[in-house]
Design brief:
Layout: E1 6-18, H1 28-38, H2 47-52, H3 58-69, E2 78-83, H4 94-98, E3 107-111, H5 117-131, E4 137-144, E5 162-173, E6 178-183, H6 188-199, E7 204-208, H7 222-226, H8 244-259, E8 263-269, E9 274-280
Length: 281
């Protein structure tokens, strides 16, 4: 009998917070790099941050997690780094540097400028690459650091701490990751409520980007949906706009896998108007 279909599944997830800063935040090339980026838009540099050396390199944040979560006999075919807050490394892309921290010789690239939707896009691309037959194990690295070295044109949410999350995605029989993204979704809260009601009571639900009770009337327990903490294990965790949802996944995934419980993750980026959903079989 021919084998059935297979897809990528998130089999492991590891989240970690970090203190301090990276020495690359004092690299004089960072000032040159940021200046070139913002000059066409007339944005001012944050001289205080550049002088003090504030911020963390995504390579330094994630390299240890990758070594902790992967064994030497687990080669990686694809590595995707996704972020919202810019990296402080002005030289070679951190995605390529991180490819040296995993077994194998993976294709490596980064996704940015998509707000919080970038994490969902990374998983969508990993699933698509698996369908080509060239990927049995993918790693998605999600990272954020606290420093924005220029004055933004409009307020943007910044994390209160440096953080990274590693998602290991592996080929398994049955349905794989299912990602859907909609830009300019009308009544996103109503759309989310419909998605949640379709999956209850079997699926675990994690929401990000919605205030409690915001348009979610009719759900039995909005606290369960939005109040699971950020997954880093602190009594009063910091706000992590990019990694928080995925750190909560890292906290709960082992139990859900043991219970064979499906899950739905939902993220809404208000700045870009992008509604993203991920079904975990």
């Amino acid at each position: 009998m021919a084998p059935g279909p297979s897809g990528l599944r998130i089999t492991r997830a590891l989240a970690r917070r970090f203190d301090g800063r990276s020495e690359t935040s004092l690299d004089p090339d960072l000032r040159v790099f940021v200046s070139d980026l913002v000059r066409p838009y007339g944005l001012a540099l944050r001289e205080d941050l550049l002088s003090e050396g504030v911020g963390h390199s995504y390579e330094e944040l994630a390299a240890g997690l990758l070594r902790d979560v992967l064994a030497e006999d687990e080669p990686v075919d694809l590595l995707i780094l996704a972020f919202d807050t810019p990296d402080v490394r002005p030289g070679a892309p951190s995605s390529l540097a991180l490819s040296r921290s995993v077994p194998g010789n993976p294709l490596a690239f980064a996704i940015c400028d998509q707000g919080t939707a970038a994490a969902f896009t990374a998983l969508c691309l990993a699933a698509a690459h698996h369908r080509t037959g060239g990927c049995r194990r993918a790693v998605v690295v999600l990272a954020e650091q606290t420093a924005l070295h220029y004055e933004p044109a409009a307020p943007v949410p910044l994390p209160e701490g440096h953080a990274a999350v590693v998602l290991v995605c592996e080929e398994a029989p049955g349905a794989g990751l299912a990602v859907r993204q909609v830009t300019g979704a009308a009544a996103p809260a109503e759309a989310v409520r419909a998605e949640v009601e379709q999956r209850r009571p079997e699926a675990a639900i994690l929401l990000d980007g919605f205030d409690r009770f915001e348009g979610l009337g009719g759900l039995d327990d909005p606290g369960e949906l939005g109040g699971l903490g950020d997954g880093f294990g602190a009594d009063d965790p910091p706000v992590q706009p990019f990694t928080g949802l995925w750190a909560r996944l890292a906290e709960h995934l082992p139990r859900w896998r043991e219970e064979k419980r499906p899950a739905l993750l939902v993220g809404y980026d208000r700045r870009l108007g992008v509604l993203s959903t991920l079904d975990l079989p």
